[in-house]
């Protein structure tokens, strides 16, 4: 099994168009990732976080999430969704995605056979990366 990652993607004003979903489907079909859980939450103006049951994200009448129907490992619980919602601005929605990085499974297996263990992983937020690159360019 490859490393497991999560993403919480905020949609300001709860405007979800479904555009990113097409890319997630492509990555899944290519075997790059395996979706373990996909959930949606909304944070109201009063700060209340609620789980959303959305099947037609972009409102075009087609069930956009049918491809992920049954993709629930039960690893994401109500506390996780509440925590994800807490990171949102008021009147926003978020997709909460738990996925396996299947592309990394062979490498992880090889490393484990040699006695290595993955002890940390993470992501650098895009804004921080851009800022660091801009600072490096200005200093260079």
Protein described:
This protein has 140 residues and is of the alpha+beta class. The protein has one domain. It contains four helices and four strands. It has helices at 19-30, 78-86, 105-113, 126-139; strands at 4-12, 34-43, 49-52, 92-100. The chain has a four-stranded antiparallel sheet with strand order 1-4-2-3. The longest helix has 14 residues, at 126-139. The radius of gyration is 18 Å and the shape is globular. This is DUF1269 domain-containing protein. It holds the Pfam family DUF6325. InterPro entries: DUF6325.
Number of helices: 4
Strands side by side in the biggest sheet: 1-4-2-3
Largest sheet: 4 strands, antiparallel
Average predicted confidence as pLDDT: 85
Q: Give the helix level as a range of percent.
A: 25-40%
InterPro entries: DUF6325 (IPR046288)
Protein name: DUF1269 domain-containing protein
Organism: Nocardioides euryhalodurans
Task: Set out the fold topology.
Layout: E1 4-12, H1 19-30, E2 34-43, E3 49-52, H2 78-86, E4 92-100, H3 105-113, H4 126-139
Antiparallel strand pairs: 1-4, 2-3, 2-4
Structure keywords:
4 strands; four-stranded antiparallel sheet; alpha+beta; DUF1269 domain-containing protein; DUF6325; 140 residues; globular; 4 helices
Brief synopsis:
With 140 residues, the chain is an alpha+beta fold. 31% of the residues lie in helices and 23% in strands. It comes from Nocardioides euryhalodurans.
